[in-house]
Amino acid sequence: MPELPEVETVRRGLLPAMEGRLIERAEVNRPDLRWPLPENMAKRLTGTRVLALRRRSKYILADLSSGEILLIHLGMSGRMLVSGITLGDFFHDHAAPEKHDHVVLHLEGGARVTFNDARRFGAMDLLPTATAEQHPLLAEIGPEPLGNAFNEAYLAAKLQNRNTPIKSALLDQHLVAGLGNIYVCETLYRARIAPDTRAGAIPDAGRLVPIIREVLAEAIEAGGSSLKDYRRTDGELGYFQKAFAVYGREGQPCQTPGCTSTIARMVQSGRSSFYCPTCQR
Ligand SMILES: [Zn+2]
């Protein structure tokens, strides 16, 4: 499942193709993804301009001149692929249409943006701009981990009286937006905190904030983590998975200098937590 760094990488890849550009034509090739696509979607997109392309949590939001916002969620296997313009050093030609190309946007300037999703857990919706913040998917989300509202005082106060394990607390999207299993495991390793530690028992819990930001910033820099289906907008892989210290490394040696332990795995709320039993207490 793409987490914040993967979605941010996709957003940055879409910027040169979409931001400020007119959508000259839209193809909508099926009535639904995870949920039904909006009615008359192709017509509502055609002739509108993308004023800005933002990210909120794991959603990409395109502010349209029509007074609507196009919400894009990659789900499990969704890809947004850009062709027809130069990305980085390379010109990406239009590929032949593929079986799971569900929505295709033809943009002013020659770019084509294709939403491809083999498993269809992704979603797209059109929301009135004026009330977008109240949309069920957006209304309850906590602060952005890279934004100013997520600071040491905020996190310390939120964790103070929590009896849940720190792993579950950081995965709670009401507390902070966009963090998932991978980046929480890596954060707790760097903070030397065991994933089952009671959140309220962590001294100076605000110190997690700069660690979370550091992990996310490094992951964005690496183009995200490609574990299964995730691709950047040029079709290439992200490579932060090569930098994982604990995630998916059960039984392999801990990378902390001087530590002779191997990485362990425990299951919390049905999900695997990877950690070093010696370094993380
Ligand atoms: Zn260790």
Automatic annotation (TrEMBL):
The reaction(s) this protein catalyses: 2'-deoxyribonucleotide-(2'-deoxyribose 5'-phosphate)-2'-deoxyribonucleotide-DNA = a 3'-end 2'-deoxyribonucleotide-(2,3-dehydro-2,3-deoxyribose 5'-phosphate)-DNA + a 5'-end 5'-phospho-2'-deoxyribonucleoside-DNA + H(+); Hydrolysis of DNA containing ring-opened 7-methylguanine residues, releasing 2,6-diamino-4-hydroxy-5-(N-methyl)formamidopyrimidine
MF (Gene Ontology): class I DNA-(apurinic or apyrimidinic site) endonuclease activity; oxidized purine nucleobase lesion DNA N-glycosylase activity
UniProt entry tagged with the keyword DNA repair: yes
Annotated ranges, domain FPG-type: 245-281
Active site annotation, chain numbering: P2, E3, K58, R271
Formamidopyrimidine-DNA glycosylase catalytic domain segment(s): 2-122
Protein's name in the database: Formamidopyrimidine-DNA glycosylase
Family listed: Belongs to the FPG family.
Cofactor dependence: Zn(2+)
Protein's UniProt keywords contain DNA repair: yes
Binding positions (DNA): H100, R119, R162
Gene3D superfamilies the UniProt entry points to: 1.10.8.50, MutM-like, N-terminal
Organism per entry: Cypionkella sinensis
Purpose: Involved in base excision repair of DNA damaged by oxidation or by mutagenic agents. Acts as DNA glycosylase that recognizes and removes damaged bases. Has a preference for oxidized purines, such as 7,8-dihydro-8-oxoguanine (8-oxoG). Has AP (apurinic/apyrimidinic) lyase activity and introduces nicks in the DNA strand. Cleaves the DNA backbone by beta-delta elimination to generate a single-strand break at the site of the removed base with both 3'- and 5'-phosphates.
Subunit: Monomer.
E.C. code: 3.2.2.23, 4.2.99.18
InterPro entries, A to Z: FPG_cat, FPG_Glyclase, FPG_N, H2TH_FPG, Ribosomal_uS13-like_H2TH, Znf_DNA_glyclase/AP_lyase, Znf_FPG/IleRS
Cofactor: how and how many bound: Binds 1 zinc ion per subunit.
CDD domains hit by this protein: EcFpg-like_N
Keywords associated with the record: DNA damage, DNA repair, DNA-binding, Glycosidase, Hydrolase, Lyase, Metal-binding, Multifunctional enzyme, Zinc, Zinc-finger
